[in-house]
Each structure stands twice: as C-alpha cells, then as structure tokens.
C-alpha cells in the first residue's frame, strides 16, 4: 500500500535499470534477418526458426527476396530433387517432394517447408518450380448455365 501511495504522490524512487545482464533484444527488422549461408546446418535452422514468423529469415533466389518458414534439421541421405541456385549458398538447394533442402557449411541439411515471395504469395517449398504454372478453370455445361444465371 505504501508503494502505491508513493507512486500516486509522485514520490516513488526512480532507479534506472542497468544495461549489463539485460536480455531484451529489440524488435527485429527484416533487413537484419538475411540468412548468412557460411554456417553449420544447426545454426541455419536456428536462424530460420528464430525469425519465423516475424520478420522472417530471407535470402535471394533468381534476383527476388524469398522468405523461409518452417525449417527442420534433416538427418538422412540426400533426397532426390531439382537444384535451386541460392545467392550466397555454398551449394545449390534441392526442391524435393518434402520441401526445399538447403545445406550448411558442415554438409548437413535443413528442410524448409514454406516460401514467401516479395508480393506476399506463400507456397509450399516443394512447389517452387510449379508455382508459375496455372490451370484454366473448366466449367461443365450446368456450371456455365448457373454462372450465366448469376450474372
């Protein structure tokens, strides 16, 4: 009660908190979340997961900023996949049926499940090379009639 009264009266002591030992890290900014590829796989995984969801760990692929989400360490043999050149990476990534496999400087692998492009579009990493493909919507005669009725 005494402390509350001191605060209410504006007489409570003000002691600045020392910076030493502080653990607070300020709000992360997107420009500081770029992936540095010259690290072991565990460090890459920690970086990606540590920036998942905000601000998102990112890299440049085909001249475009791509943000990685949902990583996991992969402890298996190298899966089959289509090579993807990633700017700054020591070796190309692999687009596999499970996602994008990237390699640390120790040769170990990290699996990334989702990718987001600069325009905000998010895709499963396994669909990277089929992201541009689109299929035309085919309507049956009944659906065409219903669409006309709605119009």
From TrEMBL:
Gene3D superfamilies xrefs: Formyl transferase, C-terminal domain
Pfam families, alphabetized: Formyl_trans_C (PF02911)
Where does the Formyl transferase C-terminal domain start and stop, copy by copy? 29-130
Under the GO molecular function aspect, what terms does this record hold? catalytic activity
This protein's name: AL1L2 dehydrogenase
What organism does this protein naturally occur in?
Turnix velox (Little buttonquail)
């Amino acid at each position: 009660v005494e402390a509350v009264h001191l605060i209410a009266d504006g007489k409570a002591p003000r002691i600045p908190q020392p910076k030493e030992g502080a653990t607070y890290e300020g709000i992360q900014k997107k420009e500081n979340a770029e992936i540095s590829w010259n690290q072991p796989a565990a460090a890459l995984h920690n970086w990606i997961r540590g920036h998942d969801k905000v601000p998102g760990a990112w890299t440049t692929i085909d001249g475009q900023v791509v943000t990685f989400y949902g990583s996991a360490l992969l402890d298996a043999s190298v899966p089959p996949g289509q090579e993807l050149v990633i700017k700054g990476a020591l070796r190309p990534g692999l687009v596999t049926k499970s996602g994008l496999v990237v390699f640390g400087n120790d040769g170990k692998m990290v699996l990334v499940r989702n990718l987001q492009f600069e325009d905000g579009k998010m895709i499963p990493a396994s669909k990277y090379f089929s992201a541009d493909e689109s299929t035309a919507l085919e309507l049956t005669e009944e659906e065409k009639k219903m669409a006309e009725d709605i119009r």
